[in-house]
Amino acid sequence: MLQIKSYLSKIYDIKSVLLIGRTKEFQELAFWLLRKKGIEKIHYCSQEENNICSDLIEPCTLKYMPHSRKQIDAVIFDRGCREMAIDIQEIAPRFFIGRLDKEEEYFDLWEQYRQISDFIYLEREKTIWPGANREDAGSCEILEWQRGEEDVELSVILPVYNVEAYLPECIESLLKWKAPYVEYLFVNDGSVDGSADVIGRYMEQDRRIHLIDKKNGGCASARNRGIAQAKGRYLGFVDPDDFIEGSMFYQLFRRIILGNYDLAYCGYKEYYEQSGNTEKILNDCLKEPYDSGTYRQDKVQKLAVNTRVAIWRCIYKKDVIDHHQIRFHEDLKRFDDLPFRVEYIFAAKSAVCVPEYLYYYRLGRKGQDVACSDEGFFVHFSIFEHLDKYVEKFKDKAKTDLLQVIKIQTHGFALSKMKGKRKWEYWYRARQDLNKNTGYFRTLCLIMMYTGKGNLGWYTGMKLWPFKRN
Amino acid sequence: MIVNDGSDDDTEEICKRYIKENKIDYIYQENRGLGGARNRGMDLVDTPYVSFLDSDDWLMPEYVEKLAYHLKRHKEEKIEMIMTLPQIFHEGSKIVKDWYDKPLFESIFPEDGVIVNPQENADIYRFEVNQCRKVLQMKFINRIHFRFRERVKWEDVYPHFYLLSKCCVCMGIGETGFYYRIGSHTQITSLRGKERMDILVVFEDLLQYIFSENRKALYFPVMRVMVRFSIWCIRMADTDNRKNLVDKLHLVFKRLPKECITALKKGVKECCGRADARQYLLFITAIRRKPLSFVFYDYLWQEMGEKTIKKLLGAGERVA
């Protein structure tokens, strides 16, 4: 009751209320409300016999509601009364408030009342993983929603460049979720094939699809254009050559709004084009505390090192992106998702994960990023230049350290893939980059803490290497 | 009464909108800090009681109602201070939580309107330091000539002890709808720069006061607050200030007389949970010794030190 009371305490313009509930605690709420300024009438509905006595509290049942049916400002319901709350749409309350038990579903209530009410407030008891610090975890999660100017909650941005062959599969998988409050923004980055036509065909079928045409400027610029035009409160990114499980955005969005998290993510699978096989990506942290949601920033920022880059299996809050001015860096030719992800995670205050594998990442197509040759890895150095600058602003040693770990991971990966002469050049530059902010001993500690022994060897070798670059 | 402490945003406009319809006094002043704004307000108060509200928190109507009711019940002239129990509103999760010291509060004030004499009950000093939860009698303030220290952050800490040690009649009122917001960007407590150093001035005031009054009962609560604030400030300080802060704190804690340390050790065993007690004792041991205090220079050394000690202690306990 604490949560609902505190929410009600911020509202001043309700006159009549309908209460649906049975518990004693809930009855007390009725008397508490009576003392609130401006309240004129309370209808109290419970299936059992009413023993409330007050002139201002009128017992009623849902079937024989008083004639003032249309004039009820707020509906408040208690645990276990979810079914009754669903049935009273025609009352059309401005405020729809209630609390739910652990397993009770909240999302369909929200979906239903978002069309009717201006404010929705749902509290649900939280299932806490065993051994969790109760204080960190909190005892409940809250969905607080307010009608916005736009009718869009989630914008999914797809940068399109010559992917005609893959588009139908991607679009079909997106459209499986029928929610009307989603928009799909296809940003056509000057494709020279029939991509735009394919999208155009689907636009006729589905009004949620939008096409933005622009001159070719790279993936980063396309995504930025998408961010600029997005109307939703939350943002998602999908690459049009990949595809998703039909329920991915449903599950992510459903999870992020309960608890007002800054970031929601799920696992992903790799899809091998030639063989058609899929494989779950396992070294990606989908465990506690993230699966039950965390508001601890030190835990959230560790996501930067213990999950894979993969920005497309997440949804992000637009407020955070705007507040911290996080954009894709258009000067980067590739891997523009790495800095975006790190910047966002360092800015986010809370995160939650859906521990399922819902995104299919296509591997083995021609001209793909990862399949590229050695030359492309040199872009890492400009990425880290951006990130060094970004992290410096925080003046936070913990963030600098996490960035060092990311550098170790990234450079280690690049070096393992590269061959030949260019590898040496990369080696020297990586050495310079790793020495910039953090010393040897500290880096060793960080490697042991976050990445495991595998990186100790090459890093120590790099450190002790006696020769200078010629 | 709204004291606009030199805001350069739309504060004035918003206030003016409300002034017209309500009984609100509005005062503008050049920026003097939170303490300065409160002092200005206190100068102008013409009611028997005064209470402070930070501009990001909020009160429910029944808060004032309940206070008035209980004041009337106890011939109001008598009561010098009213201690209330706020609730915490977490900005990120939108959850309201119990206030940090709720169990202690309920043990001292088992019901609304109970009166306690802080001179006889030293437990009361252990309350979470927060000015807004205290309602003060103007007569009392004027008698002891109380004002906040200006241009210092954390100006609540010293008055907490000063006011309680002067007060003889303190009434407690439980949860009545005072919501305290945490986790917003604008909060003073989230500042990480130079402001952290202000804590040293506050500590100095505090120590000077308890030594001049020579009140043994205050040693433990003051030490506890100092240790807790130090741990928290060190954790929050940014890379530019952390080292400096640790060095200064080292000097402060090194100078403390033996009595304070023994008081802390004794008190911690009686009143704090095991984890807290261990943390406080480790901190005070380390910060007082120069070669050990370096672990606080860096969060990483601190974390690793804590892990090692935990392991050692754990092993020791298992053997025992």
Automatic annotation (TrEMBL), chain A:
Record's keyword annotation contains Glycosyltransferase: yes
- Pinpoint the Glycosyltransferase 2-like domain residues: 155-300
InterPro entries xrefs: Glyco_trans_2-like (IPR001173), Nucleotide-diphossugar_trans (IPR029044)
Q: Domain of life of the organism in this record? A: Bacteria
Q: Which GO terms describe its molecular function?
A: glycosyltransferase activity
Instruction: Tell me which UniProt keywords the record has, alphabetically.
Output: Glycosyltransferase, Transferase
Would you tell me the protein name for this molecule?
Glycosyltransferase
